[in-house]
Amino acid sequence: MGYERTAYGHYTIGDIIMNPEIKEGSLSVGEESHQFLEALVVSDGFSELLQPFESIVEAFRYAFSLGFLNGQKGVREGAASTISPRQFISRDYYDLLEEEALSSSKSIGMLISEYAEGGIVLIRNLMPETVISAIDI
Description:
Layout: E1 4-5, E2 11-13, E3 16-18, E4 28-30, H1 31-39, H2 56-69, E5 80-82, H3 94-104, H4 108-126, H5 129-134
Antiparallel strand pairs: 1-2, 2-3, 4-5
Helix pairs in contact: 2-4
């Protein structure tokens, strides 16, 4: 599926009409945040209460949602660790983030990543230290 230009100068991806000023961008979090998300993914020996997610993408999606709903963004620190663009499709959130992308001159992927970083901070702050040390973060 490729981009097509409409008569109005917008680009379409499937059924989504995108403003040419808004870039899709990529999804990433800092290395430490990525390790935190990995620790929240189910593995042998831990209960689902400590590791409730089936994949990093699922944990990333939850962190993004939490950050977005609370208006909390974070800044990536350290090296970037990418999130699979085939499993988390940033353009699915185009309508939700279109205005903010235009006003901030940031890509949709960057905004999603910032909200995910903010959500990770919220999750960390809500988890007791004993839980964080138990899942070896």
